[in-house]
Amino acid sequence: MRRLLKWIDDRTGLEKVIRSALFNEIPGGAKWRHTWGSILLFMFAVQAITGMALWMSYSPSTRSAWESVYYIQHVMQLGWLVRGIHYYAAEAMVVLVLLHVIQKIWFKGYRKPRELMFWIAMAMALVVIGFSLTGYLLPWDQQGYWSAKVRTHIMSLSPVFGTYLERLTIGGEHFGHHTLTRFFALHAGVLPVVFSGLLLARMMLVRRYRKQAFEETAKTEVNVSSFWPGQALKNAIACLAVMGLVMLMTLKPQWFGFTHIGMGAPLAAPADPTDLYAAARPEWYFLFLFQFLKYFPGEKEVLGAIFIPSLILGYFVIMPWVAKVRIGHYFNILVSIGLLTGAFWLTYSAKMEDATNANYIAAGEQAHEKAQRAVELASGPTGIPEQGALHLLHHDPKTLGPILFAAHCSSCHRFDGHDGTGKVPLDTSSAPDLKGFASRAWLTDLLKPEHIATKRYFGETAFRNGDMVRFVNKKVSQFDKEEKVALERAIKALSAEAGLSRQAKVEEAEADLIVLGKEDLGYELGCSDCHAFHFEDDDADGPDLTGYGSREWMKSFISDPGQKRFYGENNDRMPSFLTEGILTPTEIGLLVDWLRQDWYEPLPK
Amino acid sequence: MVLLVSLAHMIKKPQPSTSPDRRGFMRGVLTMIAGGFALLGPLLGGLALLLDPLRRNRNETSGAFIMVARLASLPANGIPMKFDILSNRKDAWNHYSNVPVGSIYLRRTKNEHLAAFNIICPHAGCFVQIDSQKPQFNCPCHESQFHFDGTKANPNNPSPRGMDPLQVEIRNGDEIWVQYQSFKTGISERIPTS
Ligand code: FES
After folding, report:
1. B115 in the same domain as B83
2. Are the Cβ atoms of B53 and A276 closer than 8 angstroms?
């Protein structure tokens, strides 16, 4: 061993380097204040390690970015942990570099000859912010996508080169593959190199200043100790403390005020360029800027977004010179405190405004549901198809049904009293409430005199005075006990036509009853006077009940309710959604599956 | 360049020399030139590749009329409805046909007046939504509000202008065609982008 070390040292002179690094004399002895450098270096190492691990499994393209991050987060071994550490360490790093700058100002860390140290600290802060701006987009989820959109917009406001800058950043006219590849190259290539350079420069400067200070004070200062082991121990403890905090944030984000509940980093639904993420807010450390911009309406925005921030930044750069004037240093501190208070206040009022904003709160819940659904589908039996995870969401009845219903049906129909998405439309309904259509409960109420002519069923339609209402009011209300039992069976039989998955179990158990019910429906109760049921009936003018409520029946009905098989000429106002070109067959299918509550649901664990 | 060389020269020669070392200076210039040339290829190539997005074509669909919906799907109740604009889109190496490239609001009033607005908020490009409480548009990003006719509902809102109206035409009896365009955001003027 000795000989090996000597062999290396003979050829590299390594020992001297290490010795001088470890026994580098620190005037004033080991201090917590001196741990900054190693904390920053350590955090950078943490990010490099976790970042490279993530890189091994990440794929930057619009059809694979979210998918690969989903895979890291939910499938791969400890993927959530690595991603969580990377995410929360980034948050911690933002705080650290800002504190670093503040500390420099407070302790006059910029006075001659340390101006460079101060600027390096500032540059580090900017680079760290650059890391998070670029990193945020990489999962290509709704949150990252829409925040990046607003940011590149702000970029486009900058004078003269604005539009070019924006195009260069997003790699073209629209967000796409090249936006991701560019952001990724910056995040994992350019910025790390710059940051390493800054760290290196900082290290060199620190050693130089220490040496100078040492030479000056050596004669008088008694308390001089070397880096190893005193300072090194303090450094290690500081790093451990920061890392402990990061781990805690990863495991319990909600303790730190993150809205994300659960372990690891949040992942929103895959980016959907046609569906705004209405809950988009910048990261907490940018909230103040977000709020600030609200005070610059219209064309004044460029003032708040570009000019004022640049001015402030410019002022920070010249702080070392300002400090040379007599009260300059105190002025600097005053300005910093002023800015900090302002930022705190703005952040606070942004939070306050959002807390009472009903649109925002609803959007947040929706976004959360969508994110969960995306993961459910991706982990479902089909997995993620080659078109990507967005394709899953765009073909999911549970996600799309309410939206289609709200857009195309809710001007007449209701779903459990609302428009499918939970909102109650402004004007009242004029057609049946379709929640549970063709289910036993729905049919049972339909056939009750007290319900059929209300607006839940036919109350507001042309059928209000039709044969069906008359039948229920005149005949059904007079049914004797035996007929009532028969009606119950008939309802079961009719509902069985739909083949609803959530009634499958009972229907299997009551198969005999259903066979009897078919007889009741076809012959006994008088339904067949108007309705066809498993036989041709040319003069039946009510809708055909064969396969009533089944997927095929409903699709055909919505496509064209005016078919002879359904309402024929008696059709009220219902449009023929397919033949009139309002909806596509796929959309009708999704709508029907949603009404039938027929969608993929993961088994409860 | 010459400056650089003289700089290098000064650094390399700490001891005061009375007469400038002409040969050394020439060597310095040559070094710089050689090194510069060696780096020229990768530098220029890299720069060109980096700037490539500036010369990509603009979006093909810009300014063309596109059929959006049929009249039947738009109730004449004055409440705007969102429709997607389907068109072809290139994303670097991928060509997608008939994908949503944007969205608009269509509105048909009781007296059969038809209006179309781009969904993009003129402020910073979010998508304007229909407010959940009041009959008006609301932008979720910075709370700009617009009346259903597209005008600003509150002069203090961040948006510099009302929502961007688009040309609508009825063709073949019941088809709604819209001239789809986006405009530069953040300014009060309407300058079409793509
Ligand atoms: S983007 Fe609409 S208000 Fe800012």
Report:
1. yes
2. no
Say whether both B37 and B120 belong to one domain: no
Residues B88, B122 within the same domain: yes
Q: Is residue B37 located within the same domain as residue B125? A: no
DSSP A112-158: TT-HHHHHHHHHHHHHHHHHHHHHHHTT-BHHHHHHHHHHHHHHHHS
Q: Which residue has the tokens 């002895």?
A: A29
Q: What pLDDT score was predicted for residue A80?
A: 96
Among A150, A167, A173, beta carbon nearest to B59: A173
Task: Give chain B's domain count.
Answer: 2
Measured CA to CA, the distance from residue A519 to residue A601 in angstroms comes to 35
Q: Which atom of ligand 1 is nearest to the CA of B185?
A: 1
Each residue's pLDDT tens digit in chain B (194 positions)?
556 666 666 665 555 555 567 788 888 889 999 999 999 999 999 999 999 988 876 555 567 888 888 887 888 888 898 888 888 888 888 888 888 888 999 999 888 889 999 999 998 888 898 887 788 999 888 888 999 999 999 888 888 899 999 999 999 888 899 999 888 888 888 988 75
Q: For residue B76, is it within any domain?
A: yes
> Which atom of ligand 1 lies nearest, measured to the CA of B125?
1
Q: Does B28 share its domain with B95?
A: no
Ligand 1 midpoint to CA B122 (Å): 7
Segments of chain B assigned E as strands = 65-70, 81-91, 94-108, 114-118, 129-130, 137-138, 145-146, 165-166, 168-171, 175-179
Kindly determine whether residue A168 and residue B143, on different chains, have CB atoms separated by under 8 Å.
no
Spans of chain A below 50 pLDDT: none
Distance from the B5 Cα atom to the nearest Cα atom in chain A, whole angstroms = 24
Asked whether residue B141 is assigned to any structural domain, the reply reads yes
pLDDT of residue A149: 87
For residue B137, what pLDDT is reported? Answer: 93
Q: Using CB atoms, which residue from B92, B126, B129 is nearest to A176? A: B92
DSSP letter at A418? B
- What's the rounded Cα separation, in Å, for the pair A492 and A517? 7
Identify the domain containing residue B153 by its residue range. Answer: 65-179
**Model confidence, pTM:** 0.88
- Residue at a domain's end among B55, B77, B103: B55
Tokens of A510: 């009551």
Co-location of B82 and B144 in the same domain: yes
CA A398 to chain centre: 18
Q: Which residues are near ligand 1 (CB < 6 Å)? A: B 121, 123-126, 139, 141-142, 144, 158-159
A chain contacts of residue B158, beta-carbon cutoff 8 Å: 293-294, 296-298, 301
Residue B148, min C-alpha distance to chain A (Å): 14
Enter the tokens of residue A28. Answer: 């004033």
Task: For residue A449, give how far its alpha carbon lies from the nearest alpha carbon of chain B (Å).
Answer: 32
pLDDT in tens, A288-331: 988 888 888 777 778 888 899 999 999 999 999 888 888 889 99
B29 with B99, same domain: the answer is no
Q: Confirm whether B194 is domain-assigned.
A: no
The answer to whether residues B132 and B46 belong to one domain is: no
Interface touch A411/B82, C-beta < 8 Å: no
